Amino acid sequence: MAKNFDVIVIGGGPGGYIAAIRAAQLGFNTACVDEWKGPKGGPAPGGTCTNVGCIPSKALLQSSENFEEAGKHFGDHGIQIGGLSIDVARMLGRKDTVVKQNNDGILYLFKKNKVSFFHGRGSFVKAGAEGYEIKVAGAAEETLSARQVIVATGSNARALPGAPFDEANILSNDGALRIPQVPRTLGVIGSGVIGLEMGSVWRRLGADVTILEGLPTFLGAVDEQIAKEAHKLFTKQGLKIELGVKVGEVKNNGAQGVSIAYTGAKGEALNLQVDKLIVSIGRVPNTIGLNPEAVGLKLDERGAIVVDDECRTNLPGVWAIGDVVRGPMLAHKAEEEGVAVAERIAGQHGHVNFNTIPWVIYTSPEIAWVGQTEQQLKAAGRKYRAGTFPFMANGRARALGDTSGMVKFLADEATDEILGVHMVGPMASELISEAVVAMEFKASSEDIARICHAHPSLSEATKEAALAVDKRTLNF
Predict the structure, then answer these.
(1) What's the chain's average pLDDT?
(2) Which of 211, 220, 221, 349 has the greatest number of CB atoms lying within 10 Å of its CB?
(3) What residues are designated binding site?
């Protein structure tokens, strides 16, 4: 006998659990199905983000940044440390604690909002007069039904052909987060978010890190001026970044590590031998075990669920959000879609503006941006004005001891509307929110330039970059 609900959410990641909570807030009898297991086999909602992505990576980034600060920069503050060492097991243990706190927090939120949680893999069984039947394959098999189903099953790491992940030598983001000791040498294929963040973690702790990137430019999606500045800073830190390479055979040699044959940017045949290899060449939509064919749910050639602008699938009452559909694979994008879909089910007008979704790379310095890049504006033939301000001229950055990077504004030449804001520097992940709010309300660079910002603060660099659009910076 099926348990009946108004809304069933399949997947408990950022999109799924937020969608379930919002649906419950709107008065729907809601269930969320998620199969992720913690170290002891219990439920661990939160998806890739909480378990092997956003949250644990930030924990390790913080730990490794503290280690590097202590080893290289504390002396500037008069703090003397002798015999510095890293306890990797304890560091990983702290990371696991942070993850569990987030898992438990989601379970608490389900209970608080009266969301029924089912631990197991959710899959379609059939469609009928009473809606859709969903099977939950877990410790105890359950059958659920609802007229409204939200699919939020996320994505999986893309493997290199012929070099499957073993999470011991050839690592996805999962294995990269639990390397038991600092490798002497580490290779990274792909210079995207995961590659740069994980490469930074282990480089700070002492690994010799080489990043191989197939594209001829570094961070092609980032504003070119910001990307060039970031490349210079990362290279100075010790990351070896090779661009325009073509990866050939990858051999997993067990205890001897991994060898990567590749062609360099000039066509030369090269080989890289490393103890560990992180592969970060993108992610693929996850519909494993969903059984979409049982109800005729349409997928595209990439395996993503086909949806319209409002996340509706080809089936009435079935929606899909997050990494399993089109658009950027970002946790906060999934969250916004989750809220919007729950509100649409309730007859409201859920809203997601893809033009104001911020992007962040949590390296040190951080990289963050929203809106269009200078190269995009040039390609579109749009006339604009640009303004930049370096953190080296910011008093708070000097006091922090981190003056690397800059803030950059791009504004329409005629109307002064902000078209894009790009940053590389300290706490860029926090500073970008001001730009997101400004763009959502169609603000001009003059609006930001006229707003009083606290002194001394890093946010003054944002104000000064806005002033720079009109060539009237005050502190540079």
Answers:
(1) 97
(2) 211
(3) 58, 122, 153-155, 190-197, 213, 282, 323, 329-332
Catalytic residue, chosen from 73, 349, 422, 455, is 455
Q: Are residues 423 and 463 in the same domain?
A: yes
73 catalytic per annotation: no
- Domain end, chosen from 232, 256, 281, is at 281
- Regarding whether 129 and 69 lie in a shared domain, the answer is yes
Q: Residues within the annotated binding site for NAD(+)? A: 190-197, 213, 282
Residue 128 above 90 pLDDT? no
Are 241 and 318 part of one and the same domain? no
Q: 438 in a domain, yes or no?
A: yes
CA angle 144, 149, 151 (to 5 degrees): 110
Quote the number of domains for the chain.
3
- Domain assignment of residue 14, given as a range: 3-157+284-352
Cα distances from 414 to residues 157, 382, 388, 471, in angstroms, run 44, 10, 19, 15
Point out which residues pair with 262 in neighbouring strands.
247, 270
Per residue in 209-242, pLDDT (tens digit) is 999 999 999 999 999 999 999 999 999 999 999 9
Identify whether 365 is preceded by a cis peptide bond (ω within 30 of 0).
Answer: yes
Supply the pLDDT for residue 140: 85
CA distance 305 to 139: 28
Confidence check: pLDDT of 315 > 90: yes
| pLDDT, average across residues 38-50 | 96
Binding residues for FAD, as ranges, are 58, 122, 153-155, 323, 329-332
